[in-house]
Amino acid sequence: MTAAGGRRGCTVRFARSVAVLALWLALAGCREAPAPPSPAAAPAQTASPAPDAAVTPAAAFQGKTQMTELDALLALYVTEAGLQWRAYDGLAGVHWNDPAPVENDAVADPALRYARSGRVLLAGFGEVALPDGNAGADAGVRIGNEGEAGLTLNGDADRVNEIAIVKFYPSDDYAQVLSAQFPAAAVAPVADQCTVDAYGGENVQHNAFYRIDLGGERAVFVEAFVDEDGGAAGPGSTTFVFTRDKPAARIASMRCRER
Predict the structure, then answer these.
(1) DSSP code of residue 53
(2) Nearest-angstrom CA–CA distance, 172 and 180
(3) Which of 59, 124, 164, 196 would give a disulfide with 152, using CB separation of 3.0 to 4.6 Å?
């Protein structure tokens, strides 16, 4: 791996570690507010939807009753409007922690230096014990839906470049999980059986890559991997990272078997 490739790998790993922490913090707040906020309730720092909000980019995908929350999110992401941070403000089912993207100087890659975090519910899961968000001796569990997931939009100052979704518990049946989120889409394997991780060490996260065809020549790529040892953060996790382009360099660097 080149030095540049190594830096990219470290940046991606750092950004996703932050995403896991954001998940823990975001979902911990659910114990204090069991009922999700109304999709119409916008953060104080964002503009309220106009009376004709039905024609805004986010609202255009809310009337499709067969779509899951993640399906609607990705349907926006693959459009020209989905490049814009503000396009996601009023998307139903997404509950934002950040009213706007936040810059993180610790991320070396300028294409991923800005992030906006929130939460979304993945389809196809039931009730499980989840961390309650307390630390140390006060740590405990609460009962919640395993599909409660942390959501992070990553990009630069002007555009959204990738979407990361992290849920508690390792679920390495990736194709089944993805098919539940995109019931009308074709989920096709791209690469798996990766032998090394981003640092060149043994791959223990079961990384796999898929292409999701959303119809109308619209498609996204997703990398999925698990963390089976959650440590103090909880019962492990599963991460899905969505990009518009095939992550060919990452697939090659981890020596994955292409399908």
Answers:
(1) G
(2) 14
(3) 164
H or E stretch at 95 = strand 95-96
DSSP symbols for 107-155 = ---GGGSEEEEEEEE-TT--EEEEE-S--GGG--EEEEETTEEEEEEEE
Strands 148-155 and 114-121: antiparallel
The CA distance from 208 to 256, in Å, is 8
The residues pairing with 211 across neighbouring beta strands, listed in sequence order, are 188, 221
Q: What is the pTM of this model?
A: 0.78
In the chain, % helix, strand, coil (3-state, to 5) comes to 30, 30, 40
Q: Tell me the pLDDT tens digit for each residue of 156-175.
A: 999 999 999 999 999 999 99
Structural domain spans, the chain: 3-33+53-258
